[in-house]
Amino acid sequence: MNESLKIRPYARLLTMLGDQLIKNEQIAVIELIKNSYDADADWVKVSFENFSKDYKVTPSSRIVIEDNGTGMTKTIIEKSWMNPATPNKFSRDGKVRKTALKKRIIQGEKGIGRYAMLKLGKTIDLTTRAQGTNNEYSLCFDLKDYDDNFLSQSEQTDDLYLDSLEFNLITTSPSVFTKRRIDINNQIYDDNEHGTRIVISNLRGTWNKKKIEGITDSFFRFENLFDEIIGEHKENASKYNFNIGLYFDGEFVTRGKDNTNITLKNLFETQSVIKITNGLYDSSQGLFIYNQNDIHKELSIEDSAIKGNRVFRDHFSTLEDRKRIYRPISDFGDFKFDFYIFDFNAKEPSKYALVEEAKKIVKRHRVYLLRDEIRVLPYGDPEDDWLQVDISRGTISAGSFFSNDQIIGRIKITKFGNSHLKDKTNREGLIDDENYTSDFICIIRTFLSYLRIVVYKKYLDDNKEKDKIENTRQEKVEKEIKDLKEHFKENKEALGLIGQLEKSYKIERKYLETRAKQTESLAAVGLSVETSSHDIMLMLNQGVDELMALMSASTLPNFNHNNLTSELQKLIGIFSYVKNQMKDMQLLFTSSKQRRKQIRIKDILDKVVRIYKRTLDNHQISVEIILLGSPLVATCTDADLLQLFINLFDNSIYWMDVKGHFDKKIHITLDGDSCQMIFSDNGPGIREDDIPYIFEPFYSTKGIEGRGLGLYISRKLMERNDYFIDLANIKSEKVLEGANFVVTFIKQDNNEY
């Protein structure tokens, strides 16, 4: 005997959809706000009414959620809103569906967010009016006679099955959505003749101040923090403008703010030690493309810094036959990113030192995940460490690398471009779909790990080196010796020992000064060789090729000896060029035993221009030299001037290349009458915040590429000869809009060297 059976679920299935799939009350409210967003609303108002002063639920307590969205027609209510798991938000052609008016990416997917209401209360009164219609529809879910599982609380009432639930839809003339003015956080709206209003009463669970105020933080799901700060999307403001007002007994609930004038924007711009901006991960090439402190960078996953990274290695590799085999990375799609890293241990006078108020602001944020400009929760919550920054930090020297508190960032994905990265039904992160999500997270973790162990470590190492130099300054040691003498002035034996100490210190200092001069010279030699070696090798290779060709031709019976002279002259020209280049560079070596003498600045400048000729041509940089008055002369060595010019040229070429503009210029004015040289370029110039530090040792704005010695060496070389170099500080000295340096070839009265 065969019988036909049907699945007949209890009505508690709605509880499972609304309660068990929604983590908490905050998420439940957010799900309902999201429906307003998908309805193209300009605003949504969430009101907590008739609660006690201590936020406890009373019999008359209710939550009201109202918007001015497109509203619902009778058909939409019947065929969509009343049916869980409605597929209407998916496009049949596979493209991402957008809202009709504002073209927002529709956030809802599974058609269950509306049942978040049942997480909040047992009685639901819905009123809606569709845009452009004359009818208003009301629907009431009254389930107060049933327990949380929709089972009867009395013998007179039957247990509810899902197919037993019936609700009355009432059609009336508009009474809620009529011509009226709505004030949301002091912003007035007049177009309110359509929308949806949900009143939730017979509230479930408990509420408190922390829960209600916590909802304001969840609003970040609809407020793109970075776009608000950086100012993106100004042209499409209507698309992203979505005003959310939270009220408790009529009073507007604001997000907690520090009583300070410090802004996150200012912190990003001035006090983050590492700025990673305009980042793009190209999944087809496995390539990170980004700006690091305004310098363009590219980093491939094939790079040893990535493939050798422990995070990457542990996730993507397997050991086979004693060889490391890397499996293919899932095609989770391209994504954009920005990161800002702060140093909580930086002390004054460092420009990166943070006051306590600033640290509090930074600590409130994490790395956010945004899909189509809307946050994916819980990524970015204060307690969340979805990229395992702190876990990874705990496996190494914790004090040496940044923590979760010290980094703010965003990862931007899209529904269409990252179709395999899907929200969990309970809105608690992404589904681990095969390897897509785990590979995506690992790639981000690997990049952050690279920033920790390469970029941030270099920053820390440079600071340590700088501190060493600061701690060994002559003034500090000499002051300590002076204080000791004063303290032991009555003790002849102690004074004798201090005298011996002072003598040893001066001998050691003289030795260190000599070594410092050698180091400075070698640094400039390195820059010069780096610049000239390519040209020299090209000419040498050309010369060797010419010689080989001449030798081969000379063995032939028909060799024309009349052409021998012209071929040899060509070779002489090639090797003369190499000779002159080497001769110019030789001036930099201390082994040449150079003596100070009077030198025409123009002569040395011409040599440096020759050294940089190919580089200047390749970068399309023009050099203009202006001579004013009598010839400008300095008393020093050739090497000192060569190093000065090499450092200035190297900086200008680098920064003009970073700026990436056309018509690049270097302008040099030699004024013999005023004994000054002005060296100018039309690059990006020097930031105001960097000005006090550019002549400090190991201070560089070039990221990991910077040595932080060029300008420091230049100043020391000039001071050694009683001259001085500084930034132009008056308008008359600034020739071009970029960096402008003034070198004064007049004996300085206060020589610090």
UniProtKB/TrEMBL annotation:
The UniProt GO MF terms for this protein read: ATP binding; protein histidine kinase activity
Any one Gene Ontology BP term = phosphorelay signal transduction system
Q: What is its EC number?
A: 2.7.13.3
Q: This protein's superkingdom?
A: Bacteria
Q: Which UniProt keywords apply?
A: ATP-binding, Kinase, Nucleotide-binding, Phosphoprotein, Transferase, Two-component regulatory system
List the CDD domains. HATPase
Has the keyword ATP-binding been applied to this entry?
yes
Q: Respond yes or no to whether keyword Transferase is given for this record.
A: yes
What reaction does this enzyme carry out catalytically?
ATP + protein L-histidine = ADP + protein N-phospho-L-histidine
InterPro entries, A to Z: HATPase_C_sf, HATPase_dom, His_kinase_dom, Sig_transdc_His_kin-like_C
Instruction: Identify the enzyme class.
Output: transferase
Give the Histidine kinase domain ranges: 531-749
PANTHER family, per database record? PEROXIDE STRESS-ACTIVATED HISTIDINE KINASE MAK3 (PTHR43065:SF10), SENSOR HISTIDINE KINASE (PTHR43065)
- Put simply, this protein is called histidine kinase
Q: Which organism is it from?
A: Bacteroides xylanisolvens
